């Protein structure tokens, strides 16, 4: 039971850090273009094949 005194604040701190990291990623635009990376991979692959 004494361990809960340590585990609950640690869990809350880690959860808060995860929330802050998620909010930072939203603010910095990490999720703005979800399909662009997939299309870039395909476009680069086609360009590489044309050069070969």
List the helices and strands and how they pair.
Elements: H1 4-27, H2 36-51
Report what the structure shows.
This protein is mostly helical and 52 residues long. It has helices spanning 4-27, 36-51. The chain has one domain. The chain is built from two helices and no strands. The mean pLDDT is 85.
Estimate the strand proportion.
under 5%
Task: List the total number of helices.
Answer: 2
Proportion of residues in helical segments: over 70%
The general outline is: elongated
- Determine Rg (CA atoms, Å): 21 Å
N-to-C order of helices and strands: HH
Number of folding domains? 1
Measured between the Cα atoms of the first and last residue, the distance is 66 Å
**What's the count of strands?**
0
Give the low-confidence spans.
none
Compute the average pLDDT.
Answer: 85
Main sheet, how many strands, which sense, barrel?
none
Structural class: mainly alpha
Structure, briefly:
This protein is mainly α and 52 residues long.
List keywords for this structure.
mainly alpha; elongated; single chain
């Amino acid at each position: 039971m004494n361990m809960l005194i340590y585990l609950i604040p640690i869990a809350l701190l880690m959860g808060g850090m995860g929330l802050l990291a998620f909010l930072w990623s939203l603010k910095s635009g990490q999720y703005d273009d979800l399909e662009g990376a997939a299309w870039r991979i395909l476009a680069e692959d086609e360009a590489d094949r044309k050069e070969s």
